[in-house]
Design a protein that fits this description.
elongated, six-stranded antiparallel beta barrel, Thrombin, subunit H
């Protein structure tokens, strides 16, 4: 390598390191001036500064100069674009004091983001569930009253309506095209005190499932290592274009008997949030397919204890009178093993399979009744609960 070529490469690597410090390792692109061989200057052109291979093996950049007055990262631009649309959600849980056994109300908080100019806000169901006197705090410190329009506990989403106008609106992106390794940005109010905190990370994985412990999983979640803390729930997860690609919902840190973990945050995909929000805004609720039974999940451990003939399924403990299940002839004691073409197993819970259908759909259930396999056709109803 010639001395001039070596010097040019060294300068590129040095500037790449400087930009890495400016960008705090967030994967953004710096804005700088590129001076080429012909002496022409390309102002404010985002270019990679990795010193990698260029088309035809030619590196068109001989020297890079940082414009210190115009250095901006795409992260900064995305935050500036969406930051004013992020709010802190504050409310009161009646009859729940700050400590166990104490009377009085409890103040709770979370986050949310404006998704329409007429004041609709996306947040989490667990942020607003049971709240009274909901207030939103804007990024500039202003406050507005808000009402909970509707929620869906099974996706942990809720829609609020502010009394005033939205100072800014965030656009929803396409969460189906996300790939692990993409840089993402979380904005929210951790602990309720640090409003509009920005954290940065990557998409660690997509399509994750989390067991709620209530007989169903929240499926299709985005996993990220962007820091998400209590109070961040309901805030947006952004891509570098400043689009909301997820609604932050929970973080997993492990339990007393488990190894502690960091960087395990999860967000509801924007495409799910869009579908839920649109129906809530139109109808005031989000309807799921309804079958009308109470049931107990069957797992291999339970099947072994009770000597059941099937390792996975749901055991019908009660059939609701007048329900689609009663009309179809389901009975207490039936063991449902399959819905349509999907068997109930470790990766496909009863409720999540059911949620793949709509009210009015006709589905065939594979059932074990007194040890004998039968099929039952059910016309699903529509409800806000399973």
């Amino acid at each position: 390598m010639s001395s001039s070529r070596f010097a040019s490469t060294f300068l590129i690597l040095l500037i790449a390191g400087i930009i890495g410090l400016v960008g705090a390792g967030v994967g953004g692109l710096a804005v700088y001036s590129a001076i080429r061989q012909d002496g022409a200057t390309s102002q404010n052109t985002p270019l990679p500064v990795s010193g990698g291979i260029f088309p035809n093996g030619q590196d068109p950049i001989q020297r890079l100069e940082i414009n210190t007055t115009e250095v901006q990262t795409t992260v900064t631009q995305a935050v500036q674009k969406v930051g004013s649309a992020v709010v802190t959600v504050v409310g009161t849980l009646p009859g729940q004091g700050p400590a166990s056994g104490q009377p009085g109300d409890q103040q709770v908080s979370g986050s949310g983001v404006f998704i329409s100019a007429d004041g609709y806000i996306l947040s989490n169901n667990h942020v607003v569930e049971g709240l009274q006197e909901v207030t939103i705090i804007l990024s500039d410190g202003g406050q507005q009253k808000a009402a909970v329009i509707g929620s869906d506990p099974f996706s942990d989403l809720a829609v609020l309506k502010a009394e005033g106008a939205a100072p800014a609106v965030a656009g929803l992106g396409n969460s189906d095209v996300l790939n692990p390794g993409e840089t993402v940005i979380a904005i929210g109010s951790p602990l309720g005190d640090f409003k509009n905190t920005v954290t940065v990370g990557v998409i660690s994985a997509t399509g994750r499932s989390i067991d709620t412990g209530m007989g169903y999983q929240i499926e299709g979640l985005i996993q990220t290592d962007a820091a998400i803390n209590q109070g961040n729930s309901g805030g947006p997860l952004l891509n570098l274009a400043g689009e909301v690609i997820g609604i932050n919902t929970l973080v997993v840190r492990g339990g007393a008997n488990d190894a502690l973990a960091e960087g395990l945050g999860f967000a509801v995909p924007a495409n799910t949030a869009r579908a839920v929000a649109e129906q809530i805004i139109q109808k005031g609720f989000f309807a799921r397919p309804y079958i009308g039974i109470r049931w107990q999940s069957i797992t291999p451990d339970i099947a072994a204890v009770y000597n059941l003939p099937q390792q996975w399924g749901v055991f019908v403990t009660h059939v609701v009178p007048g329900s689609p299940a009663q009309a179809a002839g389901l009975q207490q004691g039936d063991l449902i093993t399959r819905i349509g073409d999907v068997s109930i197993d470790q990766d496909h819970s009863f409720i999540n399979i059911l949620f793949g259908f709509n009210g009015g759909d006709q589905v065939v259930l594979d059932v074990l009744r007194d040890g004998n396999p039968i099929q039952v056709q059910v016309t699903l109803g529509e409800s806000t609960s399973p």
